[in-house]
Design brief:
The protein is of the alpha/beta class. It contains 8 helices and 9 strands.
Length: 223
């Protein structure tokens, strides 16, 4: 949460919590999006699909407790971007809800399968999308190259969370929790004390094997 929030504050031009809304998507994690709105101290809205009849395709509508006047930016938050079809539908609904607002999209994971880069290009050119960002929890070099091939070199942005993932791996290795606030509140500007002490982590782990008379060391992939 903190890494993406830090990125949003620095990359959304003129970021003002009073003029920004965070939008949850039909398929994204609601709790994650609400936490993001709380961290950013912004308003919260939701894009949900309504079906007039069973089995119909339905229509994406915006659920909000306030009007859209004065909103300058809307940040779409999702757990992942894959084909970007749902993202396109949400952008269409948001342009109808707040036509004056600039749209930004953020997700934890980016798969970008199929012709996702072409859908992103259409959203940038016709849907009011300024940029979208994902973390490098998945290698994004291929997606970046595909976007660059259609003129979107600066529209797909990658948030580096390698330090966060490294800290999580070390904590799991040591049997520590990754759910405590002291880990969840880490951001790029905070030093991770566990990473600072990483050279002191044992290079081998003793594991008891069933039937063995004594514990035997097991080599760990730790360099």
């Amino acid at each position: 949460d903190q890494y993406l929030a830090h990125f949003i504050r620095s990359e959304v031009p003129g970021f003002d919590p009073d003029r920004v809304l965070v939008c949850a998507t039909n398929g994204g994690g609601m709790k994650f999006t609400r936490r993001m709105a709380d961290v950013l101290r912004t308003g919260f809205i939701m894009a949900d699909r309504f079906r007039s009849k069973a089995g119909g395709p339905g229509e994406i509508k915006i659920i909000a407790d306030s009007r859209s006047e004065g909103v300058e930016s809307v940040i779409i938050v999702d757990d992942m971007f894959d084909t970007c079809g749902s993202l396109a539908a949400v952008c269409d609904a948001l342009k109808a809800f707040a036509p004056q607002a600039k749209l930004f999209a953020v997700a934890t994971h980016g798969y970008f399968s199929g012709d996702a880069h072409l859908k992103i290009k259409k959203l940038v050119e016709q849907g009011g999308l300024e940029w979208l960002a994902v973390t490098n929890s998945i290698d994004q070099r291929g997606a970046v190259q595909r976007c660059a091939s259609v003129g979107l070199r600066d529209r797909l942005r990658v948030v580096d969370v390698s330090r966060l993932i490294a800290g999580a791996i070390i904590r799991i290795y040591l049997g520590d929790s990754v759910s405590l606030p002291r880990f969840r509140d880490l951001c790029p500007s905070k030093e991770d004390p566990v990473l600072k002490e990483a050279p002191l982590v044992p290079q081998q782990q003793y594991t008891h094997f069933t039937g063995a008379a004594e514990a035997r060391p097991r080599a760990m992939a730790w360099q």
